[in-house]
TrEMBL record:
Coiled coil: none annotated. This is Diacylglycerol kinase. It comes from Chitinophaga flava. The keyword Kinase applies. It comes from the Bacteria. Residues 4-137 form the DAGKc domain. Transmembrane segments: none annotated.
Length: 300
């Protein structure tokens, strides 16, 4: 008789993610696995010191023996954990606990923590692409230059969390929106445009639910460069808060495996919900099927 091996899961918890919670995620995880003898959960609480946290996580991942590693936080936490799991074959799970949980939405992971934990125990494993940015960072979800990166900058500086805080900084970013001149070269075509925002889209939706990339396929070996060429204040607010798709007549999509982007004026850059700074140049290249993730047996 074959003895089934006990599942061993590492939960990487960012206590600073999202808004204040009635119950700490580590308590939910602990109570859940007290009733699941087939699995054991270990936890790593992030300290807010990226270098030290990353080093500790890489050490734990390198020790081996994990059935999966679960990021408990928003898109920034997911990106941090994913960077330590690249090419390891160890699946990434997500317990959505951030102000924005865009990658969880794209992978059809439930918002309910208990449902998300059940999914981890009963999920299938899928290999997805990631995008290398400037040779130093990875993006598994959405990165962009311009308007939304400015919003992320304002959001981080405000210190306010939750939907009200997001709405406040979104209005400010939209009010001060500016188009900028940009050149884009995907190795096949070179174009010059004016745009409010350039999105490097591995996935399809922002955490608000707004669909930026209708061609999203996380495992096709291609990412999309989405140019937002025209955007009114009212239209921007509708897209962010009513979950309307971006108007296809005001966007342009370039598909690429590798791309070079140059902006005449320095513009804001964010990667998976984390503000990076102002840049003139961005290079991006797909790393196909390099990250294993837990997804529902049937997505939808």
């Amino acid at each position: 008789m074959e003895i089934q091996k006990k599942l061993r899961l590492l939960f990487v918890i960012n206590p600073a993610s999202g808004v204040a919670k009635k119950v700490a995620p580590q308590e939910v995880v602990q109570r859940f696995f007290e009733r699941r003898p087939e699995a054991e959960a270990e936890m790593l609480l992030l300290t807010g010191r990226p270098m030290a946290d990353g080093k500790r996580l890489r050490e734990l991942v390198g020790a081996g023996g994990w059935t999966g590693v679960v990021a408990v936080g928003g898109d920034g936490t997911v990106k941090m954990v994913a960077s330590c799991l690249l090419h390891t074959g160890i699946p990434l799970g997500i317990l959505p606990a951030g102000s924005a949980n865009g990658m969880a939405k794209d992978l059809c992971i439930p918002e309910s923590w208990v449902a998300a934990l059940e999914l981890v125990l009963n999920a299938k494993v899928q290999l997805i692409d990631v995008v290398n940015i400037n040779g130093a960072e990875i993006s598994i979800h959405l990165s962009d230059i311009g308007l939304n990166a400015l919003l992320v900058k304002y959001f981080e500086k405000s210190g306010v969390r939750g939907k009200l805080g997001y709405a406040r900084v979104a209005f400010k970013a939209l009010w001060y929106r500016q188009r900028f001149a940009v050149q884009i070269d995907n190795g096949k075509d070179r174009v010059a445009r004016d745009a409010f925002m350039i999105v490097l889209a591995n996935a399809g939706k922002y955490g608000t639910g707004a669909c930026i990339n209708p061609y999203s396929d996380l495992g096709d070996g291609i990412f999309e460069v989405v140019l937002i060429k025209r955007l009114s204040l009212l239209e921007g607010l509708k897209m962010l808060f009513i979950r309307r798709p971006f108007n296809p007549h005001k966007t342009e999509i370039i598909r690429a495996r590798k791309v070079y982007i140059y902006t005449r004026k320095r513009a804001e850059l964010q990667i998976d919900g984390e503000y990076i700074g102002k840049v003139h140049e961005v290079t991006a290249e797909i790393i196909p099927r390099s990250l294993a993730v837990f997804v529902p047996e049937t997505k939808g």
